[in-house]
From TrEMBL:
It comes from the Bacteria. It comes from Actinoplanes awajinensis subsp. mycoplanecinus. This is DUF72 domain-containing protein. InterPro entries: DUF72, UPF0759_sf. It holds the Pfam family DUF72. The lineage of its organism: Bacteria, Bacillati, Actinomycetota, Actinomycetes, Micromonosporales.
Amino acid sequence: MWSLKSWQGRFTPHPLPSGEKLRAYAGWCNAVEGNTTFYAIPPRETAASWAQQTAPDFRLIPKIPKRITHELRLSGGEDELRIFLDAIEPLGPRASALWIQLPGSFGPDDLGVLSRFLRTLPLSFRYAVEVRHPDFFAAPRALEAVLAPLRAEWIPFDTTAFFDTPPTSDAERDAWTKKPRMPRRDTALTDHPIVRYLGRDDTARTVAGWQPWVATVAGWLREGRSPTVFLHTPDNADAPELARRFHDEVRVLVPELPALPEPAPLPVEDEPLTLF
């Protein structure tokens, strides 16, 4: 997601052609969730455009299509996987990991399927798995035992701050019915941990809820890891600004962390012409 309507004219110029929207987003943040690939495999030309709009060290983490993860449940999707990997090949190093988001019904009894799937994947990519079945969190060692030997990461989706108190806005009420209730999990299995965090509409509550992650991410950086953090709110209207704020808070603890890129200034509208 890099072209939210509420960002246009506020964080990014408006109007912008579709082939420039990712470039504008990349002026604010250096990573993005590749949600679009979850719903449809893009043409190679589209992935090449994404690469052209971003620096080689930009992190675009594409999700493996839901046809493979949710409909086929990691079994029998060899043709779809081959087409997907070919489509994203133009991203090169920008595809810093491939995201395997699994349905809530995919539980510990399916670990054998996950293990076999991971072992068939090419070694040219890193992989990260997001699970939503509560039993994985009650007894995490079984999943860790599958992921760690294969250098695959476990992506936590921390919604504890969001579900701490009842919703207070339309956006929060909508998210309340759609987002999973997930615990906070801060154990990294690899040198490239990935975190998802969901806050509230209230900025102060969002910032208060992410404070444990500031300390965790700073600790990972001191250990030599290279984490990626994705920050969400129910409407995501302020997400680019909040992401930069989180990054700045981590830099207070780890001053050697490079700053994020400086966004290009938005164009100033011409003043109306007058006779005097």
